[in-house]
Design brief:
Radius of gyration: 18 Å
Shape: elongated
Structural class: mainly alpha
Order of helices and strands: HHHHHHH
Number of helices: 7
Number of strands: 0
Strand content: under 5%
Largest sheet: none
Distance between the termini: 23 Å
Length: 121
């Protein structure tokens, strides 16, 4: 009954944090010392990153590399909800979809459990 939470590839995770910081691709590319086209290839997954380049990008985005690599949209949304930080105009579509998927799975689980309880009454 448990639904799998969508995962993001590294390029999508980088885009997520770039957007959360309100940076354009061009601005981050300039900070990294590369062209906007080269940066776009990183986000789209065309250019594969080595650990050193990924660490530089994570640093520019203000996150630890291990956090960037292990980032999960569902966990992020949950933590934002706990902290009350849900008002954000830069929430990516993938994160909203992951949240909706999680809500649907929980609704299905509740329905299933209610039916079990009705059968025991």
């Amino acid at each position: 009954m448990e639904q799998e939470t969508p995962t993001l590839d590294l390029g999508s995770k980088i885009r997520f944090f770039r957007e959360m910081r309100g940076l354009s691709q061009e601005a981050l590319a300039m900070q990294l010392g590369i062209s906007q086209q080269a940066y776009q290839k990183i986000e789209s997954g065309i250019t594969k990153l080595d650990v050193e380049r990924a660490n530089v990008i994570a640093t520019e985005l203000g996150v630890q590399l291990d956090f960037l690599l292990s980032f999960s949209p569902a966990n992020y949304w949950y933590n934002c909800t706990l902290s009350g930080n849900t008002v954000n105009n830069h929430i990516p579509k993938e994160l909203l979809e992951a949240h909706q998927t999680q809500i649907q799975a929980l609704k299905e689980e509740i329905s299933f459990l209610r039916e079990l309880l009705k059968g025991k009454s």
